[in-house]
C-alpha cells in the first residue's frame, strides 16, 4: 500500500520528468530530484540518473516519461515491493495550493520552460552551444529542487544537486561534491540570485571549473557576480525568473 509520503514523492517525480521532451528518467527522494538524465535509450538514462547520487537513489521513486517494458524487469529485481503507477502528462495552467494556519496560499504553478524565457548573456564570455543547452537542462531540474537549490549538469545529465540549505554556499558545496571531477565545463543553475559573489558561492563555482552559470539576477550585487565570472572566464546568464521552491 502506498503511504502519504510515497504519493508526495511520486507526484514530485512525475512533475519533474513531465518537463522533458526527450526520453528521461528522474529519481526523487524526499520530493527532491537526486538524479535526472535524458537518453534515447531509457535504460541508459536510468543508469545515469542513479549514478548522480546512488546513495540517495536507494528507496527513491523512479519516474519515466516514456513507456518502459524491459526496464521494469530490472527494477523488479531490485525491489520485492515494487509498485508501478501510470499517469497522464501534466497540463499547464494549474494552481499551486498550500495550507497554512488559518487558511490557504494560492499561486500560479511554475510552468515556464526554457523556451518561455530568455537566457541573457551578461558576461564577457558567451557560452558555447553545448553550455547553453546544459544550462537550460540544469534550469529545468533546479525548479523542482527545494531552495536554496543548486544543480550542476552536463550532456543532458544531472551531475550534482544541493537542496534545502539555509544558505546558497552550502547547497553549492553539496552539488560540487556530488559532481566531482565531472564539474569541469559543466553548467550550473541556481533557483534564485546569488546575494554575494567574491569569496562566496559564485567565486567557488568559478574556481571549480564550471563553464556557465544560469541564475535569475536581481541582486543589488549583480555586478559583483558579473565581474567575478569575467575574471575566471565563466559565462553568466540571467533568466529574470526565479523558482525559490519551498
From TrEMBL:
It holds the Pfam family AICARFT_IMPCHas. One of its GO terms (molecular function) is phosphoribosylaminoimidazolecarboxamide formyltransferase activity. This is Uncharacterized protein. SUPFAM superfamilies: Cytidine deaminase-like. The keyword Lipid metabolism does not apply. It comes from Coptis chinensis. Keywords: Hydrolase, Multifunctional enzyme, Purine biosynthesis, Transferase. Coiled coil: none annotated. Transmembrane segments: none annotated. One of its GO terms (biological process) is 'de novo' IMP biosynthetic process.
Amino acid at each position: 500500500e502506498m503511504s502519504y509520503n510515497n504519493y508526495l514523492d511520486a507526484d514530485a517525480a512525475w512533475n519533474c520528468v513531465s518537463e522533458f521532451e526527450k526520453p528521461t528518467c528522474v529519481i526523487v527522494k524526499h520530493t527532491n530530484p537526486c538524479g535526472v538524465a535524458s537518453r534515447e535509450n531509457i535504460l541508459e538514462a536510468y543508469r545515469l540518473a542513479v549514478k548522480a547520487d546512488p546513495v540517495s537513489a536507494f528507496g527513491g521513486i523512479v519516474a519515466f516519461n516514456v513507456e518502459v517494458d524491459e526496464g521494469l524487469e530490472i527494477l523488479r529485481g531490485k525491489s520485492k515491493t515494487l509498485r508501478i503507477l501510470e499517469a497522464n502528462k501534466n497540463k499547464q495552467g494549474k494552481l499551486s495550493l498550500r495550507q497554512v494556519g488559518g487558511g490557504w496560499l494560492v499561486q500560479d504553478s511554475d510552468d515556464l520552460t526554457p523556451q518561455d524565457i530568455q537566457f541573457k548573456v551578461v558576461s564577457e564570455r558567451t557560452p558555447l552551444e553545448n553550455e547553453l543547452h546544459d544550462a537550460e537542462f540544469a534550469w529545468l531540474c533546479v525548479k523542482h529542487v527545494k531552495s536554496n537549490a543548486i544543480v550542476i549538469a552536463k550532456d543532458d545529465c544531472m551531475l550534482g544537486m544541493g537542496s534545502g540549505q539555509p544558505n546558497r554556499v552550502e547547497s553549492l558545496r553539496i552539488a560540487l561534491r556530488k559532481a566531482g571531477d565531472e564539474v569541469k565545463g559543466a553548467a550550473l543553475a541556481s533557483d534564485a540570485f546569488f546575494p554575494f559573489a567574491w569569496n562566496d558561492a559564485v567565486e567557488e563555482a568559478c574556481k571549480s571549473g564550471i563553464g556557465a552559470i544560469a541564475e535569475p539576477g536581481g541582486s543589488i550585487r549583480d555586478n559583483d557576480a558579473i565581474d567575478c565570472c569575467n575574471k575566471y572566464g565563466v559565462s553568466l546568464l540571467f533568466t529574470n525568473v526565479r523558482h525559490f521552491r519551498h
